[in-house]
Amino acid sequence: xxxxxxxxxxxxxxxxxxxxxxxxxxxxxxxxxxxxxxxxxxxxxxxxxxxxxxxxxxxxxxxxxxxxxxxxxxxxxxxxxxxxxxxxxxxxxxxxxxxxxxxxxxxxxxxxxxxxxxxxxxxxxxxxxxxxxxxxxxxxxxxxxxxxxxxxxxxxxxxxxxxxxxxxxxxxxxxxxxxxxxxxxxxxxxxxxxxxxxxxxxxxxxxxxxxxxxxxxxxxxxxxxxxxxxxxxxxxxxxxxxxxxxxxxxxxxxxxxxxxxxxxxxxxxxxxxxxxxxxxxxxxxxxxxxxxxxxxxxxxxxxxxxxxxxxxxxxxxxxxxxxxxxxxx
Length: 329
Hints:
The longest helix has 21 residues. 50% of the residues lie in helices and 4% in strands. The protein is built from 13 helices and five strands. Strand 4 and strand 5 form a beta hairpin. The protein has two domains: 88 residues, Orthogonal Bundle (DNA polymerase, domain 1); 194 residues, Intergrase catalytic core (hpI Integrase, Chain A), CATH 1.10.443.10.
């Protein structure tokens, strides 16, 4: 790659980051899209192409090379979405008829751990260091939440008097309401007090809480308001990777994942992750008679087909309609 191409690549990736942030996409999206587009640019710069070759053909060649490398279908899709975003949002080009060699997606069901194993690991999970990872895991399991949206709960989202929790901008930027089991309310009340104590320390130190989007610019004072503080804050502030300023962030997902690994060792279970607790919730709720549409709403799925992948069929619930004839063979 020539020095001119390197400069063009850096400029393109900078514009890509700017568009991602302007559209208020998550940091995870930025960390996925930017490297994918960077590899795509490296690919097209490393080859000679016929003059006037459409961008679609270059993308097809790149995705075909990714498929031949043995990458999973989900990896190929993620790279395609990143490239499409780059062309549409940065280059302002619409692409059509992309036909590349792609791995076929199977109709895979979500695997949920058996009820007894889930019970064992929930009994075994403990707080990790100074973080309430036991409460976080139980909240995921009791409410069918995603790990990231659980950690993103702010004090304003919790209504302990009514036993309600509001998930703000979950996956797909959708809000939804969750009923909190009564068994968790006392522990959540204790965690609110812990969060308030950390909030007071943050105000004394003059470190703002990380706010969504550009709200900190619209209302700078909100950065120090109690209602915007995390329910599960970090013990100490950290640097915002986008602004490089010191902010107060929520507990890191790896802390919860580490607590679950330790719990698996204690319980004698294998590979039960925080997200699998969400799978278990959906499976057990359906087995207990919950309607699939209600499960879809609580889990925040856009499509009911996504919800159906969590549910475990039970042939015993469908007896033969001819059994009532009491025929003998």
